[in-house]
Design goal:
15 helices, 2 domains, N-utilizing Substance Protein B Homolog, Chain A, mainly alpha
Length: about 325
């Protein structure tokens, strides 16, 4: 499942595009929002495919070396620790994953230079050298290598970042979130004969899908109302000089606090302060913190914040 934080970010991006472009179709923007979330899930599948392709590339190199006219001893007796990695074999044999990859046409076939570069970086790394020279072969060791491959190589690869920018405008800010999803899926797979990797679905459940749509609708339909609320608490500021993204972050926080009675106010507040740290400057995030705090205080005094069930935590 895609995390709630990433869903909030997707709504923020969709709302920003809606207002900046002057769109007159909420339905079209909503479809674009849901499409961007689906593309993020496809990136999740693509990272698994990247792991598979790296292993396949390594095996192909071994086959080519063995078929030389005058192969060396090393060519004929290569270290097959990586190509035989049990965790990677587990990923390759995962029927549901294979079906989803085929259905969504996930492929890196047009980017052979990326596979070569990632493989070069991997084989020249200390973690790879340590791994292939280990005396004991174990599931835990194989799993650890794949996790390190994802967390240390794939996540921070400039080459991959460049390719992602070329492939989809929806993936600019998604890789870190997606890598965390892949990591969670891999960690839950405890044994080689386990039931397999537990893949995340697009949404955790219908509630998450509705959360996303309601949040977007609330911001779009009540934009003027939320804007006036912010203006009331920024009288000593030149509102025109406040970054539009900062205003949207605050509006989105207000929308969630007012429209979602099952989410504690403090949770919503903290989430948008964290998002502000990512999309704004340190000065802006501190500004957003202060203004939101004042707005929440006013909304509580007016009894406009209504929470139920788990949403009552901390109220």
């Amino acid at each position: 499942m895609i995390s709630r934080r990433l869903l909030r970010i997707k709504v923020l991006q969709a709302a920003y595009a809606y207002f900046i472009t002057g769109s007159d179709s909420v339905d079209r923007s909503e479809k674009e929002l849901l499409h961007s979330i689906e593309k993020t899930w496809e990136l999740y599948l693509s990272v698994f495919m990247l792991i598979i392709d790296l292993a396949r590339y390594a095996r192909k190199r071994i086959e080519i070396a063995r078929s030389k006219l005058s192969p060396t001893f090393e060519d004929l007796h290569p270290n097959t620790r990586f190509t035989g990695n049990m965790m990677i074999r587990h990923i390759e044999d995962h029927e549901e994953l294979a079906s989803l990859i085929k259905k969504h046409k996930i492929s890196w076939v047009n980017y052979p230079e990326l596979i070569r570069e990632l493989y070069r970086q991997l084989t020249e790394s200390d973690l790879y050298s340590s791994y292939i020279n280990e005396q004991e072969v174990s599931w835990q060791s194989d799993k650890r290598l794949v996790l390190q491959l994802v967390e240390e190589l794939i996540l921070y690869s400039p080459s991959l970042e460049q390719v992602l920018e070329e492939r989809s405008i929806y993936w600019n800010d998604d890789l870190e979130f997606v890598v965390r999803m892949v990591e969670k899926s891999l960690r839950k797979c405890s044994l080689p004969d386990d039931q397999g990797i537990q893949l995340f679905s697009l949404f955790r459940d219908e509630e998450d899908r509705q959360f996303t749509i309601r949040l977007f609708h609330s911001l779009v339909f009540h934009h003027k109302e939320y804007e006036k609320l912010i203006e009331h608490h920024t009288r000593n500021w030149d509102v025109d000089r406040i970054a539009f993204m900062d205003i949207l972050i605050m509006e989105l926080a207000i929308a969630e606090i007012l429209e979602n009675d099952s989410i504690p106010t403090r949770v919503s507040f903290n989430e948008y302060i964290e998002i502000a740290k990512y999309y704004s400057t340190d000065k802006s995030s501190n500004f957003i913190n202060g203004i939101l705090d004042k707005i929440i205080h006013q909304l509580r005094e007016e009894n406009r914040i209504v929470k139920r069930g788990r949403g009552l935590i901390g109220e």
